[in-house]
Write a structure and sequence with these properties.
This protein is an alpha/beta fold. It is about 45% helix and about 25% strand. It folds into two domains: about 80 residues, Arc Repressor Mutant, subunit A (Orthogonal Bundle); about 200 residues, D-Maltodextrin-Binding Protein, domain 2 (3-Layer(aba) Sandwich). The chain has twelve helices and twelve strands. Strands 3, 4, 5, 6, 7, 10, 11 and 12 form an eight-stranded mixed beta sheet that branches. A two-stranded antiparallel ribbon has the order 1-2. The chain is elongated and about 75 Å long.
Length: about 290
């Protein structure tokens, strides 16, 4: 079917690499090359300049790429409209999630969704909030689930849950004996932080800035799991979502440091691009996020 050939062409055009496109499409590289040659024969034009080091679209290739994207979107929309007649939920959904959501919240949600809609194919990409926002903006993801505040006029943003952030320390940390602390106790401490671009890092930075606390030293990790393990090892104190450290709190390995008068709640938000075509599997997944609106 011409749609499949166009899908191959679009993938190569976006990856600018035949090997990478073949891997993503689960095809052989000669198979991918054959699809491109067939298209070039059909249109009577060279669509790509290719060499061992480079793949570049020609002017004709650029025209076809734009039209092929439109055709693929229309094909998917037609398929979804027909599926709605039979009330079937099929197709693929590529979700992006920030670390806290992707590692600690979304797995159970996806398990429930998969049991209810076994014909749907779900792919999950986990990154920090900034990375997921960028991928949704460029339509590399169908939707994103991120933590913290997002203000972008180019995206649709809809909070769907609340998350509690807490300050934690190892059970043998000097502050652990206090349990309830004030901002002076947090000053001049060693802090373990997430990397810039993380929603958790943004929240931690805002706390330190608001309270006027200056860390004695900071260590930066690019995952919440890494931050948790560092705090458990006694490297310093940190701020993480309660859902990440719940088990360690219950087992007494970590201690929550309660700070009176500090707002420690944030939103989990759904982000989508208005330019991304909605499919039935897309709609049903969003309905699961907002059951009260049904």
């Amino acid at each position: 079917m011409i749609v499949e050939t166009l899908r191959v062409f679009v993938t190569v055009a976006e990856q600018l690499n035949f090997s990478r496109a073949a891997e993503l499409l689960n095809l052989s590289q000669p198979g991918v090359s054959l699809h491109i040659r067939n298209l070039e024969n059909e249109f009577g034009a060279t669509l790509m300049h290719r060499s061992p080091k480079m793949v570049k679209l020609t002017e004709a290739g650029d025209i076809l790429y734009r039209r092929a994207k439109e055709i693929l979107l229309l094909h998917e929309a037609a398929k979804q409209d027909i599926m709605r007649l039979h009330d079937k939920v099929t197709g693929s959904l590529h979700i992006g999630a920030s670390f806290t959501i992707g590692e600690y919240v979304l797995p159970r949600m996806l398990a429930t969704f998969a049991m209810k809609y076994p014909q749907a194919d779900i792919e999950l990409t986990i990154g920090n909030t900034a990375e997921i926002i960028q991928a949704v903006q460029h339509q590399r993801l169908d939707l994103g689930l991120v933590e913290g505040e997002v203000w972008l006029s180019s995206l649709h943003i809809r909070p769907y849950a609340k998350d509690e952030m807490i300050i934690i320390a190892a059970a043998n940390h000097p502050l652990a004996a206090l349990r309830v602390v004030d901002t002076t106790n947090l000053n001049n401490q060693v802090w373990v932080l997430r990397e810039p671009g993380s929603g958790t890092r943004a929240f931690s930075d805002r706390l330190l800035d608001t309270t006027g606390c200056t860390p004695k030293k900071t260590y930066v990790f690019n995952s919440s799991q890494g931050v948790k393990e560092a705090v458990l090892a006694g490297l310093g104190i940190s701020m993480l979502s309660r859902c990440i450290v719940q088990k360690e709190l219950e087992h007494g390995e970590l201690v929550e440091l309660v700070v009176k008068g500090i707002q420690q709640e944030r939103n989990f938000s759904l982000i989508t691009s208005p330019e991304m075509a909605s499919t039935r599997v897309h709609e049903v997944f969003i309905e699961q996020l907002f059951p009260s609106s049904l």
